[in-house]
Amino acid sequence: MKRILLASLGILCLIAGIIGIVLPVLPTTPLVIAASILLGASFPRFAKKLDRMPVIGEFVVNYRQKTGVAVRTKAFSLTALWLFLILGAYFSKPDWVKTLLAVVGVAVTAHILLLRRKTA
Predict the structure, then answer these.
(1) Taking phi first (over 0 means left), then psi (-120 to 50 degrees means alpha), and beta for anything else, what does residue 30 get?
(2) Considering only Cβ atoms within 10 Å of each terminal Cβ, which end of the chain, N or C, has fewer?
(3) pTM for the whole thing?
(4) What tens digit of pLDDT does each residue of 35-83 get?
């Protein structure tokens, strides 16, 4: 029962993390790392598959092992973040949504910039 609960939570975190790639309000990296931990505790094979996924596997492994994030990855992340935030603000009517998007953007930008830079 415990394995099923952990696996279910892990899958939910993974789905939310993947949605967070295009929806800046959801924090992708922490959700995917949580998914890796939860899936690893329930089914280690799932965690290993997650580590080998083409798009997010490298981020999870680097984040978990604290090896840093490549400058190119930071640049791509910040570009994608602000592109989607600006699009979201453009299509949003209420001012509070635009304010929320700006606050999220500043906070996530600070987080990304403060991550250790990966050395070759």
Answers:
(1) alpha
(2) C
(3) 0.64
(4) 888 888 888 887 788 788 887 777 777 777 778 888 888 888 888 888 8
Q: Are 31 and 14 in contact (CB under 8 A)?
A: yes
Q: Tell me the C-alpha to C-alpha distance, in Å, between residue 17 and each of 27, 35, 117.
A: 7, 9, 22
**What distance in Å separates the CA atoms of residue 61 and residue 67, rounded to the nearest whole number?**
8
DSSP letter for each residue of 93-104? -SHHHHHHHHHH
State pLDDT tens for residues 2-35: 888 988 998 898 898 888 877 767 777 778 878 8
Find all residues with CB under 8 Å of 32, minimum gap 6, and list them: 13, 14, 17, 18, 50, 56, 59, 60
